[in-house]
Amino acid sequence: RERILLVFTQRTVGPDDRPARHADRVLRLTPLSTPQSTEMIRAILGDDLADQGALSWVRDKARGVPLFVSAFADFARRQSGPDFSGTSLPLDLLDLFEQSLSRLPGPTRRFVQAAAVMGSIFEPELIAALLDESPEAMADHIALLAKEQLVGERTNGSGLSFAHDLIREAIYGNLSKDLRRRLHGDLADLMLAQWP
What we know:
By secondary structure, the protein is mainly alpha-helical. It has nine helices and three strands. It has helices at 34-45, 52-62, 66-78, 93-102, 106-118, 124-130, 135-147, 165-173, 177-194, and strands at 121-122, 151-153, 160-162. The protein has a three-stranded antiparallel beta sheet.
């Protein structure tokens, strides 16, 4: 008989938050230390790009959160000699995701917005059908979204998933109420038609 370890994660808002369910053991993750953050940043940037300005900027923005370290270091890696004291840099993670979205062509932005309505895990074929897109266009959207590190394939199960819940929340949160309502309704109609 094999033993199974069940691990549940929960993102908390403040130090007084408690797990939603009883747990035999609760592990509270702490931010990465400065040396750990620096090591992660250097691994993403490489030695050529890991100058002191880039390292300090990413560390200050990320505050030891691995997702933030990864996202801001990847942003720094893709820039060509940015001024890390400049005002054109993203202010926070939401601003960073919005900049990633703004680089995408309009049809790909609409694709990922519809995917955000479906949830953290989504079926790209269903989103393509919703938007009346061809399989080739769907593949192009997925390639662009993967390049921007917004979505990725699931390790098990079908469909795709957003790289992090915060990415999906940022995209979904920026949709107008009317667009959200319309996409939810159209998606529900399509799902009922496909799976009566």
